[in-house]
Design goal:
Blueprint (H helix, E strand, L loop, with lengths): L3 H7 L4 E5 L4 E4 L1 H7 L3 H4 L4 H4 L4 H15 L4 E7 L2 E2 L7 E2 L2 E10 L5 E10 L1 H37 L4 H23 L5 E3 H8 L11 E4 L4 E3 H20 L9 E9 L2 E9 L12 H13 L2 E7 L4 E7 L6
Parallel strand pairs: 9-11
Antiparallel strand pairs: 1-2, 1-7, 3-6, 4-5, 6-7, 8-10, 11-12, 12-14, 13-14
Helix pairs in contact: 6-7, 7-9, 8-9, 9-10
Amino acid sequence: MTDYEQIFKVLSAPCAILDGAFRFAGMNKAYLVTLSASREGLMGRHVLEAFPETDERQQTLMVAFQEALAGTATALKELLYAIPDKNAEGGMRDVWWNVYFTPLPDPYGEVQHVLLRVNDITEFVKNRELKDAIAGEMHHRIGNLMATVATVARQTGRMQTSLDGFLPVFEARIRALTKAHSMFAKGNRKSMTMDRLIYEQLDAYGDRIDSTILVEGPEMRVNASEAQAISLALHELTTNAAKHGALHQDGGRLSIKWKVVGDGFEFEWTETGLSGVSEPTKAGFGTMILTHILPSQLSGEADWEFTTASFRYRLRVDQRQSV
């Protein structure tokens, strides 16, 4: 004769047997392991006494159990129900469950007991929530990126008189945006440090870091929107320095510094050791990025200063967006 009791004990599915009063009448080892409980602590106890929760969640369990006791198998999918856990904050740990109640009729067809089977699906639910959050964030980032690309294309086109003049400038600006976007896409980051953003934009001049280029500031994380705006500004500053300033002239030195100020920050780009520089008489799109677009996107203020031997650009943001 088949020993069904032994089969029940060794089942891999966490199962318990409940009597008509919603008390534990038996359980297998898998159930005890899953619920971090002991047989002595559960036998004969009311389920809601052994596993207290909010009235609403307890009522959901009770209704499903009563339907099974009346002869109808029931299932609760993705039920959030906490269980005692001495290692968890507050002594309770939130768990997502699939819960199944199956009637166990006696030889006369009367249901005196109900089989309870549970499945901990917490990891599945959290992975799905993470996937949905990542998809939502990427949708938001891509939307912002496309809007920025459209603006860059439109404004760059206005400053050029030919396709040959337009393409190199436009492609360089898009590469600057792509760098910031790809750094966030790798590993689905929500933020990155300011210094890494700067180093990525200055990668062509890495051999001059700490010699003629100084990068200095505390650890400060920027979110995707901030990084996108700052990277475009860094590209413009770097391009100008390479054409006319500290990255082009012998003896030129570049200092990039930032500091946290209250709930915001200050950023300063300073070029020294220059000769023959002057403030541009015509404002192009690069100027617009530095003086209008970047401060507008970050809700900050920007200014610059030229002397015959130096150039300084400063951005101040008093209230940052959340990171």
